[in-house]
Amino acid sequence: MLYERYGTERLEELGFGEGPYAPFPKEEDRAAWGAISPKKRENWLRLADRYVDYGWPVLKVSDYRAYWTSGDLSRLSLAYFERRSVLGILVIAECMEGEGKYLDQIMNGIFAICEETTWVFPGHRSHWKEFDKQESLPSRTEYGVELSSVETARLLLWTRYLLGTKFDTISPRINERIVSETKDRMLKPYLEHDDYWWQGFTPGERVNNWNPWCNGPVLAGLLLIEEDPDVRRKGIAKVLRSLDAFIAAYPADGCCDEGPSYWSAAAGGLYECLEMLWLASQGRFDIFAEQIVKDIGAYMPKVHIHGDYYVAFADCDVKASPGGGGVYRYGLSTGDESLIRLGASLPLSGDPSTRIWFNLYSYARDLFVENERLAQKADAPYMRDAWFRVTEVMTARQREGTEQGLYVAAKGGNNGEAHNHNDVGSFLVFADGYPLLVDLGTEEYKAQTFSAQRYELWYLQSQYHNLPTVRGVLQQSGERHKARNAKYSLQGGRSELRMDIAEAYPQEAGIAAWDRTVRLDRDGVAAVTVRDVFAMKDGVPAQMFHSLITPCEPEVHGEDSGEIRLAYAAGKQAVVRYDAECLRVRIEKIDDMDSRLRRNWGDQMYRIVLEERQPIALGERTIIVTLDRG
C-alpha cells in the first residue's frame, strides 16, 4: 500500500530532505518552550533535579551473561533502562530550563551509552544470522537492529535534534559521536539486511509490533542525519516496504491481537512512522484516509473499559497507558472523534522515571499538543458495543457513555496469535469499571517466555483462564486449535458471541462439541450469561472442571447454595450463580504473583473451580453474573 503509492517514482516528489524537518521546536526556540505550562515545567525540572549528581550505573558483563545462564534479565534491565530514562528526563528538563544546568550530565549520559559494548539486549541477539549461539558475551562489532538498539538510537537522535546547537558550542565531537554510533549500530545494518524477521521480507515469517517499533527510529535516522539523498530515498523506500508487510499482516478488523498494552508499539509505532512521513513531506505523504489505518486506531476506544483498564487477553496487561498525546494525535489525523475523545481524556505517557523505554519523540510531540488536547475537556467515549470479525473479539457494556453497570468481553480466534495464551473461548467481566472475572496476563518476561517451554508457564495455560478443563487435558497452542463457527449478534438489548471451542483442545480431551455462548442482557435485571452445551466423543463420560479467575475474594455461602459473591468495591457486590446440583465449588488462592502480576492485580488472585460432581458425557452448564444493587 505505502510503497505502491509513494515508494517508486513518487518518492522523489515528496521532498524529503529538501527543507528542515522540524516536528517540534528545538531548545533554542525559547518562546515555544517557554509557552509550556508552568505546572508541566515544574514537574519535569523537579524530576530532573534528582539526577543532577547522578552516578551512571555500570552495565556488568556478568549481568548480561545471566540471561543465558539462568534466564534472569532483571539485573541488566534495571541499569540499562535507567540510564536511558535519566538521559531523556535531563534532555527535556534542559529544553525547559534553557540555561545549561543539566548539560554536563547529559554529556555524561550520551558518552556512557555510546561507549556500551552493545545496545542489543541478550535475548534479542538470536534474531539475526550472525549471532553466535554458543557465545553468551556481547561483542562491540555485533550490531543488530532490534528493539533495544533502535530505542537507544531514537533517544540519541532526538537528543541531538533538540540540543545539537548547544552541543556544537561545547564541542562538535558530541554530535559527531551520536551520528557515527547511530549510523554504525542502526542505519548501516538496517540497509544491509533483508533477513531481520521483523522486516517482513522473509517468507513465512509473521511480523508483529517489532516492525513499526524498529522502523520508526530507522526512519528518524534517515530523516535527521542521512545526508546522501540517494541513500535516504532508498532507505525510506525500504521502510515503506517493511511497513507494508506489517499492515498486510494486521487483522483487517483493526484489532490489535497483541492487546492494548502493545497498541502503543504496534499501532502507535505505525502512526509515529506515518506522522513523521507526513510532517517531513509537508503533508504530501498522506495515508490517513485509508480504512485499515483508521480501523487500527479505532481499536483503542472499542476496548477501553474505564480508567486504565482495557480488554486484555494473552500477554497483555489489563492496565495500559497508551499516552493521551499519541492517541489524540492519531484521532486528529484520521478524523476519529472517539479516538480524539479517548486521547483527550487520558493522561500523557506515564512517569518517565518508571518507563521501560523513553520515547523522546513522543514526549516532545505531546508537550506541544497538550494545551490543545486539554482544551477538549472530553470524557472517554465508553462505547457500548464492538465486534472484531476477524479476530473474533466481542465487547459490550450495559450503557453507552458510562462505566457504570456490567461490561463483558469474549474471544474466539485461535491459539497461534501474537503473544498467545491458550485461551480460545475465554471471557472477562467488569462491574462499574472494576474487574470481576479476568484474564491474568503474564509475569515479567524471561528466557522461558520465548522458548519451546513457553506453555509450561502456568499462567499461559487454559486452566488459568475462564475455561473448562476436560479429563485433565488443556488447550494446545497453534493456529489449528481454534474456535469454529463464531457468530456475533446484536439484537435490542442483547449482545452475544457464540462459538464452538472443541478444536482448541487436543484429541485426548475427547470433546465432540463444545458450544459456548457469552451474552450480555441489558433489559430487566442486567446479566452476563455464559452457557456451555457440550458432548463427549462416543458418549464416553469425562471428569471436568470450569475455572474462573478473579481478583475479588470469593464468598461462598454454603456448598449447595449455587451462589458466589464477589465484593469488587466498598459496599458493592456481584453475584455469580451456578448449578450446585451438578457442580461443587472450590476456591484456590493464587499467591505466586511476580512484580508484573502485582502491578495489575495486587498481591494475590483467586481461582474459582466449579467441578463436575460426576463424570459426564453430555450436558449444559450456565453461569450468570449480576450486580447486587441491594
Quick structural gist:
With 630 residues, the chain is an alpha+beta fold. It has helices at residues 2-6, 30-34, 38-49, 61-70, 74-97, 103-114, 147-170, 172-192, 210-224, 229-249, 260-263, 267-280, 291-303, 324-334, 337-345, 360-367, 370-375, 595-601, and strands at residues 304-306, 309-310, 385-388, 393-397, 406-411, 414-415, 427-431, 434-437, 468-470, 478-482, 484-491, 494-500, 511-521, 527-536, 544-550, 554-556, 563-569, 572-577, 583-590, 605-612, 618-628. It is globular and about 80 Å long.
Counting DSSP E segments of at least 2 residues, the number of strands comes to 21
First CA to last CA: what distance?
A: 56 Å
Could you name the CATH class of the largest domain? Mainly Alpha
C-alpha Rg, in Å?
Answer: 26 Å
Give the CATH architecture of the largest domain.
Answer: Alpha/alpha barrel
Largest sheet: 8 strands, antiparallel
Low-pLDDT runs of 5+ residues are none
Q: Quickly count the helices.
A: 18
Helix fraction? Answer: 25-40%
Globally, the shape reads globular
What fraction strand? 15-25%
CATH topology of the largest domain: Glycosyltransferase
- Structural class comes to alpha+beta
Strand order of the largest sheet: 11-12-13-14-21-18-17-16
**Count of domain modules:** 2
Mean pLDDT: 93
Subcellular location: Cell envelope
Protein name: Heparinase
Domain Heparinase II/III-like C-terminal: 408-547
InterPro entries: Chondroitin_lyas, Hepar_II_III_C
